[in-house]
Amino acid sequence: MRTVVAVYTGQGLADPLKKVFQELLPDVRLVNIIDDSLIGDVVKAGRVPPGVARRLVQYYRHGEELGADVILNTCSSVGEVADMARQLIGVPIVKIDQAMAAAAAARYDRIAVLATLPSTLEPTMRLIEKEARAAGRAVALVNGLAAGAFEALNGGRPEEHDRLILETAERVAGEADVIVLAQGSMARMESRLSEATGKPVLSSPRLGVEQVREVLERFAGLEGGEAGAR
Fold this sequence. Notes:
The chain is an alpha/beta fold. It folds into 2 domains: 3-96 and 206-229, Rossmann fold; 98-203, Rossmann fold (3-Layer(aba) Sandwich). 54% of the residues lie in helices and 16% in strands. It has 10 helices and 8 strands. It has helices at 14-24, 37-45, 50-65, 79-85, 98-107, 118-134, 149-154, 158-172, 190-197, 205-229, and strands at residues 3-8, 29-34, 70-73, 93-95, 110-115, 140-145, 178-181, 201-202. β3 (70-73), α4 (79-85) and β4 (93-95) form a beta-alpha-beta unit.
């Protein structure tokens, strides 16, 4: 049985992502490592502080020790730490938002990035720009920061959180060909936002797990080829 270790900086995405795994990779052993202090420290600092980066690398190492075939980084705010850690960890690290960013950069010219935190918005925009450069394309990015939405959700006001995200999506839709949801926890609003704006909306959880599946299949194929050669 293959093992995937998912590393979380908060609680909100674990249950929805588990359902995606059950659908797309039902035979995979999924192990969750959750430290919900991480996102609080990132929000407080407005960036990824060194202490958070160190703890994340430790969790990736723990994932390797747990027998992971793939480690899934589930938080867009810390994706650049995952990039760095790939040089240190002996198993593949998949960033949950990389496939989403690549799809947006390959298909669309004007991309609105919707987020509730600057610390998530900015690295997601950088990732899309990176994927666009790799594809040899020039894209225009639209800032879709839903100010106050994160605080509303943390304050127990999910309806206000959703309202602010919807209002932000409607505000930026006229400037964009597609809306990208920078936080996986926003995926539940994908259909609602698309209906309200008339624009395609991309979210990361399903695309991220599909990329995990591709990596697992590729390594299974390599192992099969090596066995055949022997």
